[in-house]
Structures are given as structure tokens and as C-alpha cells.
Amino acid sequence: MLEMIRRREGADVLSKDTGGFLIKNSNDFKLDRIMDDQQGYYLLGYRPNTETFDRHFHHISAKVKRSGLSLRTRKGFYGFTEDDANQMRQAQSNKIDAALVSPFRAHDIAIDLATIFAKDPRLGLLLRSFLYIDAKNLTFQDDGEGWQKVTVEMRGIIFGNNGRPLDEIVVTPTVRLRQNAYEQAMRDGLVLRFDMPVKRPGSYQLRVAARDLVSSRLGSAGQFVTVPDPNREFAMSGIVLSGATEQKILTISAPLLSENATGTKVEAQLNPNPVNRHFKAGTNLVFGFVIYNANASAGPPQLTIDAKMFREGKLIDSANGLRVNVAGQKDLTRISASGVVYLKPELQPGRYYLQLVTVDSGKKNNAVQWIDFEIIKP
Question: I need a surface site. Which of 57, 59, 289, 294 has the fewest CB within 10 A?
Fold first, then answer.
């Protein structure tokens, strides 16, 4: 249920901030409500004074004195003049830049995005992303001696909850694959892993665009992520899933670069696919995450995990009291944890949700994370 709410956060925020409303928890689309909303209304507007066009965000608030009326308004607007807007349109003539700011996906290249929050000892809070790319949409070139290569320009932008861009990265990895790895990539796809630091806890939208430098084909994707404060509260990172018996996928780890960085070095390795979370009934579902700010004041933290699996809001299976082994972990401020959930053979194909609750015997509050996955036919 929580994962379903998170998935519609973007549409909910967009509709409210632009003066609309979101239809949810309904199978009939609430067409009667929409028609009633259009039957009779007053649309008010005003022209701000010249000083308002300062390129900053201005909030709007409105009230009605008469009872029996409802009022909706945009959250605000940016103070741009027509000349400013025209300059922005010209700057967005670059397709990849336009794809980053557009609320709609570019589909020349089929891509998908899975992003979790994490805390790195060196970089601090960050969004850790896995970008899946359908390799059949890429233009590989013969690089001699049995090698195939492709170069992909990838750009990512983090937007704050006010819609303003906060940070941007550009990476241009050249991927070189031997014939067997190339054939596997064409069959199963590529995954680009990258990190983007964030300065403080909060709600963020990450948008990523990838462009094949040979064909100029383009794909884009986006995701909303909420980052808690692991320095002050007991918290879990996002969850990464893999199947113990599933086929491997080629993952490309791209280092974090600045906008003007060059000479990217990319290393390839075989890892489970963290993006397309499709698993077969009768196999093991392996989960992994990191625990932050556990209580270590009186010795090693005493941590347990309660794992619950849901489908359509109903509890399907659970395993409680799974103990986290902290032996050998040098940094008790960030404890790696993992476990296995057996997907029973009788489970029907469809969308499922895994809830993990981490319990610290020395803490009053528990930490909770959700992730969705799909069970497919054998």
C-alpha cells in the first residue's frame, strides 16, 4: 500500500501545485466528479507588476469569503518575462536537454530507472540509481579483435520539491564488450549505475536521459525519491532485489563526473538486474540494504528484520525476527543487511510488494522500507 502511494506522489504533487486534483482509489475514473467540476466555475487571473519578473518563484494564495464555494489555485509561478521564456525554449532545442525537463518520456531508446537513497562515507547522502537500457536500441560498432563498442551520453538532473534543479551530472561511458557479453547484452540489456549526492534530506525528483552518440536516439525516465535523515533518525537505505537462480545481466559502473569531465573509464561486470524485478515462483528472492544510526552505545546493535509480502493489499507470507549479523562489520553506523524470501511455487503471477521492518532493541522507532516486484510464469 505504501509503495502504491509513493508511486502516485508525482501525479498528486503536479495536480495540486497546478490547481487541479488527482483521481485515485477508484475504478470508474470518477467521471461524474470531473463533469460536476466543469459545470460552473469562475476563473480568476491577474497580471503581476514589473518587479515580480525577477526569475524567482512566487507563491500564490487565495481565499473566498462566501460559504458553499470551493477554491483551487496554482501553488505559484516563476517570474519570467516573455523574452526569458523564449530564451529558455531556444536553450531546450537540444533534444537531451528537452527530455530532461519534459514530464513525458522519450522512447527512441527503451530505458527504465530504479533509484534508492544511500549514505556514502565519503560523499554523504546520495541517490544511487540503476538505469536499464535495451541494448537492441543502441548502435554497437566493431572495435576489432572480437570487441563491440557503444558510447552513450547520459545526463541526470535532481529537482527539489519546488521544481527547481539542484544538481546535474554528465557521463559519457564507452562500453566495450566481447562477443559473448555482447550477445548477452543484446538479449538482456545493459544497466548503468551512477550516484548523485544530495545536500540534505527531503523529497526529490530525478530525471535521466540517455543518448546514443552514433544514431542520436534518445530515451528518458524519472522517479520520485524521499531521503530521510540517517544522521538523526534510525533509517534504512532503499532495497535492492535479486534472484539467487535468475540469469545475470551486464552492469556498467560509471564513476560520478562533473559536467565538463572527460576521459570516463568504465568497468563491466556481471551482476543481477536491479531494475527489471521479475522473478519466478519456486525460487529465492534475495534482498539487501543498509541500516543507518543503529544503537551501538551498549555494545553491538541488536537488530532483527520482519519481512512481509503483500499482493493487492493482502498479506501473503511473512518471516519475522530475522537476526542481522553485525560480526565483522567495521562501521556500525552503516550496517549491511541481507536476507532471503522463498517465493512459493503456488504463488500466482502478478505484482507483489515486499515490506521490510528493521527493529533495533535500543530504539523506540522502527525503520521501514517497501519495494515492488513481479512474479512471472516459469
Answer: 59
